[in-house]
Amino acid sequence: MKIPKKNRRYCPKCKKHTEHTTSIVKSGRRRGSMKEGQRRFKSKIAGYGGYPRPKPEKGAKYGAKSSKKIDLRYKCPDCGKSQTPKKGKRAKKVEMQ
Ligand SMILES: [Zn+2]
Fold it and tell me: 3: domain range?
């Protein structure tokens, strides 16, 4: 999918249409090593028993979709605020024009 670098969109802050610049947010957040869930997980791993693996449900499909939803951001040059589209679009490959 090809995405234009500049897009004329409405900015709710400026209350007018401006030339927004598009950018794709890279997926994959860093996990906090001291967050509650991570601490609980560490205590689960500790000792004998090893890694707690959840059993997959019967008939469950893994990785059924080959495309991912792209995370787009539109940035207004006047105020610097960025907007996100309401619905993410699915695409295998994303290209900036
Ligand atoms: Zn603006």
Answer: 1-27+68-97
CA–centroid distance, 7 to ligand 1, in Å, is 13
Residue 52: partners with Cβ closer than 8 Å, 6 or more residues away: 44, 45
What mean pLDDT do residues 3-7 have?
A: 89
**39-61 pLDDT per residue, tens:** 988 888 888 877 777 777 777 77
Residue 63 lies in a domain: no
Whole-number Å distance, alpha carbon 5 to ligand 1 midpoint, is 17
Contact 11, 20 (CB under 8 A): yes
Distance 93 CA to ligand 1 centre (A): 29
Distance 9 CA to ligand 1 centre (A): 10
